[in-house]
Design brief:
The structure holds two protein chains of two kinds. By secondary structure, chain A is α+β, with helices and mostly antiparallel strands. Chain A has 17 helices and 14 strands. In chain A, strand 8 and strand 9 form a beta hairpin. Chain B is mainly α. The longest helix of chain B is centred in the middle third of the chain and has 32 residues. Chain B is globular. The chains are: A alpha+beta, B mainly alpha. Chains A and B meet through strand 7, helix 7 and helix 9 of A and helix 5 and helix 10 of B.
Chain lengths: 499, 304
């Protein structure tokens, strides 16, 4: 196991130790046994002469380090599963099973993840093996794949007794576009950047930055501090915009009209500032490897300060109203509880972990760029219910606002240097990892180059990948009519999961 | 006769005022006052799509439901002007006509075989059943107070400020009837007419499969239901001594205030959690029981 103490990182493929399957799995188990400060970043399989080389990326929040280990899994040779001892591994192993046909002897829940067309298991999206509950008052409710609000497609199968949900199974994959494959096939930097921005539309900055960082370490480029600072502003602004929009959506779902209209209106100045800054309300086209295409000049900084001042006044007023209105709090409190132990077990990340007392936050645990100097303090709530998730959003909006102001002040005292030109070939035989704390949680990009310095594998982990399971746990023993607010309180990405 | 005309006129603008109040309080201009009338006219011109799994029950239900509401309208007087078809104990008939209208809609929802609609029908059935005691206790108390059992006779002797009716009873009765109207019309805090989430819907999910003329009829029924309760509330304020034009102004005024109240309630609060709804509805019954005891004391039937 090789341990590296900073992110983003680039490590030569032959530096990652190759051990036997048993040894690697024992090593991973031992690593994760330490506790909640450790979790899995990603599990990537690369084609190998005998089968697949499975590289596991593990993260330790306390020592701010990342550890890598790898093993060769031979084709047609079933290996023991890590899932029974570490539930958080289930999604990664299912992904490997689906993509490459790696067999696990004791995986308890080996079901398709996203139904890619080139899947090893060419099962149709229509015969997903759902769990079923039978007898007595039990009944089954299937929702989707077409969403009532015509957002993204996903199928939810509820096993209920009366009005209560016993079990929810979430079937995704309708949105699969093979973004990873496109990123591997793309030969120009521009195409890659545009693709990265489109991985999940609401996490444009998060994914664009993670991609830019991965490319920067592969080309050994360093961004100048101004660029890093501007990216912090963009990321925090995206966080604010989505959180405010989601508070509005939560209000809508509990039929609180005032909140739904005014939070919706408050989101507008935030995303309109992106429009002013880079010509796109979601921040597309802003971040490119090595540089930002649009500078945050003095005039725009002034506009931003003004916008934030006006926003803060209204937001504080409305948020205070929301969290003191009995009918709203009554709906939120105690609804959709996910306990601390549960979020730790399933490896939940970001907001979905912090709402239940698990302080998982890349900005603190594995800081990159300007975050290293910012001394980040995470917003943590302990309730684990919808109220806690709403409170995390509210407090993160405030925290992001403060951080943006600090960074704006620092920016006005800095002078720029020329942006580096990024070559289109990369360090050969290298694995690069970058992680960004986007608004949902950690976005991890893993890029692997071949001996010609071309990308041979590009793997993306959107925080939704872990966190969908938190939603399934949240609705257990809750009323089925509370599902919409539980769902909205997580607001997970379909396309980020389906890729 | 005049009551029926008033109900029909109120039904034209009631939902419009509710929606306008909500939009203004939400910082929007909102649709025109008669948008829902246009919607109904549009729906009336359209053909209906009918699921092949449904039977004649599904097709009949909106019509029966509409007729039941229309019949309920004929039982409501306008002040001292008698209703179209008054009879003894028509208060009971009124309650069960509304129940009939709900019952056939529940049947239609179950007829579609959709799990959502079954869920909605189940909820609507329970809340309809729970709200019944509140209605009967209120009007039973008023019947004891006045000694009459038909709306026409009841309201010919009963007004706010008329002898024997304390302000307390009127205020409580108005509150309970307002909440019953909200529940019967599937509004906040029991149901949310604006939601797009099938899993949380009650009334809306039951009519998901209806389209065209049938849907238009359902919309007309729900507007008339509101106007029906609006006129019931107005009747408390129609003093016999006033001239007809003043009575009309009072009746429309009460309905406009009622509509604005509904709009305001829906703007400033969130919806109940589904499990709390039965509790909420039973609270109405207990308020109604309060009216009952006040009446008993007033009529010296209960001596403290």
């Amino acid at each position: 196991m090789i341990t590296i103490h900073h992110l983003p990182l680039a490590v030569r493929l032959d530096e990652i130790p190759v051990v036997s399957v048993e040894e690697a799995f024992a090593c991973i188990n031992q690593y994760l046994r330490v506790g909640q400060s450790r979790h899995v970043f990603h599990m990537v399989a690369l084609p190998h002469t005998d089968g697949h080389r499975v590289i596991t990326v593990l993260a330790d929040d306390h020592t701010h380090s990342v550890s890598l280990t790898s093993c060769i899994v031979r084709t047609g040779n079933p290996v023991p599963s890590l899932t029974p001892s570490n539930a958080q591994m289930h999604i990664f192993e299912r992904d490997l099973w689906e993509r490459y046909g790696l067999e696990f002897t004791d995986h308890p829940w080996c079901k398709p993840v996203r139904f890619p067309v080139d899947s090893f298991h060419r099962k149709g999206i229509d015969d997903y093996p759902f769990f079923r509950l039978e007898g007595g008052e039990s009944h089954e409710v299937g929702v989707g794949p077409i969403h009532a609000g015509v957002i993204e497609p996903g199928h939810f199968r509820f096993q209920c007794t009366g009005e209560d949900v016993v079990h929810l199974e979430i079937k995704l994959g309708y949105q699969h576009r093979d973004v990873e494959g496109e990123l591997e096939r793309a030969r120009t930097l521009q195409r890659r950047s545009v693709l990265a921005e489109s991985i999940a539309g609401d996490t444009t900055i998060g994914h664009a930055w993670a991609h830019a960082m991965a490319i920067e370490v592969l080309t050994e480029q360093q961004c100048d501090p101004i660029t890093e600072h501007e990216r912090v502003i963009a990321l925090e602004l995206e966080r604010m915009a989505i959180h405010v929009g989601d508070l509005g959506a939560l209000s809508l779902d509990v039929a609180w009209q005032l909140g739904s209209s005014y939070f919706g209106a408050l989101r507008t100045p935030l995303i309109n500032f992106f429009q002013l800054w880079c010509g796109n309300r979601f921040g597309k086209g802003l971040i490119r490897p090595g540089r930002n295409r649009f500078p945050l000049d003095e005039e725009r900084r002034k506009a931003m300060r003004l916008m934030l001042a006006q926003f803060e006044k209204k937001f504080t007023l409305l948020a205070n109203e929301m969290f003191s209105l009995p009918s709203v709090v009554a709906r939120f409190e105690g609804t959709g509880v996910v306990t601390h132990d549960q979020v730790a077990a399933i490896g939940a990340v970001g907001m979905s972990a912090r709402m239940s007392g698990l302080g998982r936050d890349i900005r603190r645990s594995h800081p990159h760029g300007s975050y290293r100097a910012l001394d980040h303090v995470s917003v943590i709530e302990h309730g684990g219910d919808v109220l806690a998730r709403a409170a995390v959003r509210r407090r993160e909006v405030d925290a992001s606002m403060r951080r943006i102001r600090i960074v704006l002040n620092e920016l006005s005292e800095m002078s720029g240097s020329d942006a580096p030109t990024v070559p289109s070939t990369f360090t050969p035989n290298t694995l690069a990892i970058s992680a960004v704390e986007a608004w949902r949680g950690e976005v991890v990009h893993v890029a692997v180059t071949d001996q010609d310095g071309q990308i041979q594998a590009y793997r993306i982990k959107d925080p939704s990948m872990h966190n969908w399971f938190a939603l399934a746990l949240a609705v257990r023993n809750n009323e089925i009519s509370d599902f919409p607010i539980c769902n909205k309180s997580f607001d997970l990405s379909y396309c980020g999961h389906d890729l | 006769m005049i009551a029926l005309v008033v109900i029909l006129v109120v039904a034209l603008f009631f939902i419009g005022i509710v929606n306008r109040t909500k939009s203004l309080l939400g910082g929007r201009v909102g649709p025109g006052l008669f948008q829902h009338v246009h919607d109904v006219v549009r729906l009336f011109r359209k053909g209906a799509v009918i699921s092949t799994t449904s039977s004649i029950v599904f097709r009949l239900a909106p019509t029966i439901s509409f007729v039941a509401i229309l019949m309920a309208c004929t039982l409501i007087p306008f002040g001292t002007q008698p209703a179209l078809l008054p009879f003894q104990y028509d208060v009971v008939a009124f309650a069960y006509l509304l129940a009939l209208s709900r019952f056939v809609m529940i049947l239609a929802a179950l007829d579609t075989g959709s799990p959502f609609e079954g869920m909605g029908a189940n909820r609507e059935g329970i809340y309809g059943m729970l709200v019944e005691p509140a209605f009967f206790v209120v009007f039973g108390s008023l019947a004891i107070l006045t000694g009459h059992t038909s709306f026409t006779e009841l309201f010919s002797t009963l007004h706010v400020g008329s002898g024997g009716v304390s302000i307390l009873i009127s205020v409580l009765a108005v509150y309970v009837i307002l909440q019953i109207a909200m529940i019967e019309s599937s509004r906040l805090p029991i149901d949310d007419p604006k939601t797009h989430l099938e899993l949380t819907m009650i009334h809306e999910v039951m009519i998901l499969d209806h389209s065209g003329f049938d849907l238009g009829l359902i919309m007309v029924s729900s507007s008339m239901k509101f106007a029906l309760f609006g006129l019931l509330l107005a009747n408390f304020h129609l003093t016999p001594s006033a001239p007809l034009w003043l009575l009309l102004i009072i009746a429309f005024g009460v309905n406009i205030v009622f509509a604005m109240t509904v709009g305001a309630i829906e703007s400033f609060r969130a919806r109940n959690r589904m499990k709390r709804n039965p509790q909420f509805i039973l609270t109405l019954t207990s308020v109604a029981v309060l009216i009952y005891f006040s009446v008993l004391i007033l009529t010296n039937k209960l001596v403290l």
